[in-house]
Write a structure and sequence with these properties.
single chain; alpha/beta; Collagenase (Catalytic Domain); Immunoglobulin-like; six-stranded mixed beta sheet; four-stranded antiparallel beta sheet; 8 helices; 18% strand; binds zinc ion
Length: 430
């Protein structure tokens, strides 16, 4: 048994640096040193600050006035993605290409779970939260990352109906941006040595900017045999095996800084500039127990399970609401730059209704754009227990207020059934 353990340790040790290491700061150094890029960066950040202020004020207004603005719940955000494997030859086997396409989808699935807070390990927060009294809860955003399938750039050879996954395209000789792929949320997967990946802090799709991931930090599972011999994606790194490097790097693309970006007295201006993430100045690695590390900034505990720290994939599982407000503000700043014609209609047209406010206290409104049929509403808690159901006729008002009796706080799912369609939306009850 001892021999087996030793062999395992030796085998694990063959791989590169076992700690998370992100290249965002080096990337920003490059951008700041280029006068043109620096100026553009500053202009975007200025627009972002205005938008952040606007939606933060709206949130305060809504929470105090219970105003039922449709803006309270944005329609599901859809983000068209493209994945690029520059080191995989276009003549690689169909088996390998299909495996990498599946791995890209696997990566997208975990992104969607993490950003919507539907990841299976989010429940760990229930017991961890007592160590973090200033963190109001788990943050989420109603977003759907989708691998684009339509109207791909000319010359790329990808036909309509085929996912935007490229092989052997030399992404501008190894650069991080390529105007050919402007309008997509690009991810380039390539060998990056010891770092797991990087992104600019606040990226823009109109410039064809990308998030870069190291091969072994991409996706989860057993990877794809034959990709990079010995270090297949998703299987090459102890602790980096659940696809969360992309969750972290996309956080940077959507203007989230590291949670360990420093102390300071004004949370709006210092540290990560998110007021509900406890300040920290030292990155954390591995898998610390919740509440086990006191911040160098004061008496608070380090939020080691936040995606924007450096802990192992299995031990990071949440954003905060303040982080998601910043992500929303960055999305609003750049949303017009995404090329939505790259998604099929089926992907774009999903709902005909909004639910607001969300989060709420158990009372919320469903507003339909139109009613062409009778409909029913069911609300389930996370364990699948039904907590509300009712039936409404087509002649009902376009707005229906739903009240759940004595709800516990947490994640709930609202099923709206009409005709043969069922749409499920997530709500959070505080
Ligand atoms: Zn980072």
């Amino acid at each position: 048994m001892k021999k087996i353990t030793l062999l395992f340790i030796l085998f694990s040790g063959c791989f590169v640096n076992a700690q998370r290491n992100c290249g965002m700061e080096q990337k920003m150094q490059q951008i700041i040193s280029d006068p043109v890029k620096r100026q553009l960066h500053l202009e975007y950040q200025q627009k972002f600050e205005q938008e952040l202020l606007r939606i933060s004020n709206n949130t305060q207004y809504r929470s105090t006035q219970e105003a039922q603005s449709p803006e309270n719940v944005n329609a599901t955000i859809r983000i068209p993605m493209a994945f690029h494997f520059p080191s995989v030859s276009p003549s690689a086997s169909t088996t390998l290409k299909n495996c990498l396409r599946a791995l890209a989808q696997n990566q997208v699935n975990s992104l969607n779970a993490d950003y919507n807070a539907t990841n299976s390990d989010i429940s760990n927060w229930v017991s961890a939260s007592s160590f973090y009294p200033t963190v109001p809860g788990v943050g989420s955003i109603d977003v759907e990352f989708v691998i684009a399938t339509q109207n791909h750039p000319a010359g790329t050879g990808i036909t309509n109906g085929t996912v935007a996954v490229t092989f052997g395209t030399d992404f501008l000789n190894g650069a991080d941006e390529d105007l050919t792929w402007a309008g997509y949320m690009n991810v380039v997967v390539r060998n990056e040595g010891g770092i797991l990946g990087y992104s600019p802090l606040g990226g823009y799709p109109s410039a064809g900017w990308t998030v870069v991931l190291n091969t072994w930090a991409f996706g989860s599972g057993s990877g794809c045999t034959g990709y990079v011999p010995g270090v297949p994606p998703g299987s090459g790194q102890t602790g980096i095996n659940k696809g969360r490097t992309l969750t972290h790097e996309l956080g940077h693309f959507f203007n989230l800084n590291h949670t360990f970006n420093g102390c300071g007295t004004n949370c709006n201006l210092s540290g990560d500039r998110v007021c509900d993430t406890p300040p920290s100045s030292v990155e954390q690695y591995g898998c610390p127990s919740p509440g086990s590390i006191t911040s160098a900034c004061g008496t608070n505990k380090v939020l080691t399970m936040n995606y924007m720290d450096y802990t192992d994939d299995a031990c990071m599982y949440m954003f905060t609401p303040g982080q998601m407000t910043r992500v929303q503000a960055w999305y609003n700043t750049i949303s017009s730059e995404f090329n939505m014609t790259t998604l099929s209609n089926n992907e774009v047209v999903k709902n005909n209704f909004n639910i607001f406010p969300n989060p709420n206290n158990g009372t919320f409104t469903i507003r339909f754009n139109d009613l062409s049929d009778d409909y029913s509403v069911e609300v389930f808690d996370i364990s699948g227990r039904i907590v509300f159901e009712d039936y409404y006729t087509q002649s009902s008002n376009l707005e229906q207020t739903i009240s759940i009796d004595k709800p516990s706080s947490g994640v709930y799912f609202v099923n709206v059934k009409s005709g043969s369609s069922i749409i499920t939306e997530k709500i959070i009850i505080k």
